[in-house]
């Protein structure tokens, strides 16, 4: 998957393990549409090169000397605020964090500080390539839907932005795992249109594999997010979206019903836009 101007996806690798850097580089170079533009060996060098080279994607290790991965994310966030969003002179690089630390608290902290994806080592290299393709070209067109009887194309960036806006309006914090899993689930349902049978049985295993976790953890995280919506979320927006679809006694939809309803709303919003 190349960028919208036909160029390769430019990747900056940041990791203090030289052997691992070489392994990543060799594997990435087996994909002709992706290129490694620099290999940084610590966070300070990685940050400097990110600002200088402005890659499409930064693959960032968490534990490194001088400045760790979380420190890099925090520095980027600080500089972006200082520059009023103009730090990159264009689109912000997508950031994939690689680490052997699988603690939920750390995952939340990393995602809250601007990482797009968090992959726990050891991992399948094909998953990394998929993530690079997912975020490397924000303008790629790969979502199709029908408007007035005609097939229409939707950029990944526009769809992701819409899903993000809706989840934010509902009141789901972006720093919890369920937020990331819900976003992925809703986008999958929109992509695939009507999913026969149980939505959750179809998509939970995919999300779990993509994020190197378990199906039960995906289910619990999504359930926690939905419970938060009903206890602390935007009540007016909840009533507007769900209305009579929510069970009067339980007061909350099932995970599958929630995902399906949100996907329907977002799809209709995009069709009418």
Second rung of CATH, namely the architecture of the largest domain: Orthogonal Bundle
**What is the arithmetic mean of pLDDT?**
80
Q: What number of domains? A: 2
| CATH class category of the largest domain | Mainly Alpha
What sort of overall outline do the alpha carbons produce when their principal axes are compared? globular
The low-confidence runs, each spanning 5 or more residues with pLDDT under 50, are 139-155, 245-249
Would you kindly provide a written description of the structure presented here, covering whatever features stand out?
This protein is an alpha/beta fold and 273 residues long. The protein folds into two domains: 9-136, 3-Layer(aba) Sandwich (Rossmann fold), CATH 3.40.50; 141-272, Arc Repressor Mutant, subunit A (Orthogonal Bundle), CATH 1.10.10. Helices cover 53% and strands 15% of the residues. It is built from eleven helices and seven strands. It has helices at 18-28, 43-53, 69-82, 104-112, 125-136, 156-170, 177-192, 199-210, 215-232, 235-242, 255-272; strands at residues 9-14, 34-40, 57-61, 94-99, 117-120, 141-147, 150-155. The strands form two sheets. A five-stranded parallel β-sheet has the order 2-1-3-4-5, sandwiched between helices. A two-stranded antiparallel ribbon has the order 6-7. Helix 6 crosses helix 7 and helix 8 packs across helix 9. It is globular and about 55 Å long. The two termini are 27 Å apart. The relative contact order is 0.10. The model is unreliable at 139-155 and 245-249 (pLDDT under 50).
């Amino acid at each position: 998957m190349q960028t919208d101007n036909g160029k390769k996806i430019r990747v900056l690798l940041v990791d203090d393990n030289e052997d691992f850097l070489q392994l990543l580089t060799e594997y990435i170079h087996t994909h002709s549409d992706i290129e490694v533009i620099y290999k940084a060996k610590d966070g300070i060098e990685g940050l400097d090169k990110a600002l200088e080279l402005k890659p499409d994607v930064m693959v960032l290790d968490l534990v490194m000397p001088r400045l760790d991965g979380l420190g890099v994310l925090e520095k980027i966030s600080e500089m972006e605020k200082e520059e009023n969003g103009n730090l990159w002179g264009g689109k912000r690089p997508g950031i994939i964090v690689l680490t052997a630390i699988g603690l939920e608290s750390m995952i939340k902290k990393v995602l809250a500080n601007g990482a797009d994806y968090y992959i726990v080592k050891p991992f399948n290299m094909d998953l990394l390539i998929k993530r690079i393709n997912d975020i490397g070209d924000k303008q790629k067109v790969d979502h199709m839907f029908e408007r007035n009887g005609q097939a229409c194309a939707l950029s990944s960036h526009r769809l992701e932005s819409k899903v993000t806006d809706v989840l934010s309006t509902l009141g789901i914090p972006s720093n919890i795992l369920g937020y990331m899993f819900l976003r992925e689930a809703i986008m999958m349902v929109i992509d695939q249109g009507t999913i026969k049978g149980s939505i959750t049985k179809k998509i939970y295993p995919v999300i779990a594999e993509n994020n190197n976790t378990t199906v039960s953890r995906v289910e619990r995280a999504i359930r926690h997010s939905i419970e938060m919506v009903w206890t602390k979320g935007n009540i007016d927006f909840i009533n507007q979206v769900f209305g009579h679809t929510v069970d009067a006694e339980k007061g909350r939809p099932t995970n599958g019903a929630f995902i399906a309803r949100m996907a329907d709303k977002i799809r209709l919003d995009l069709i009418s836009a």
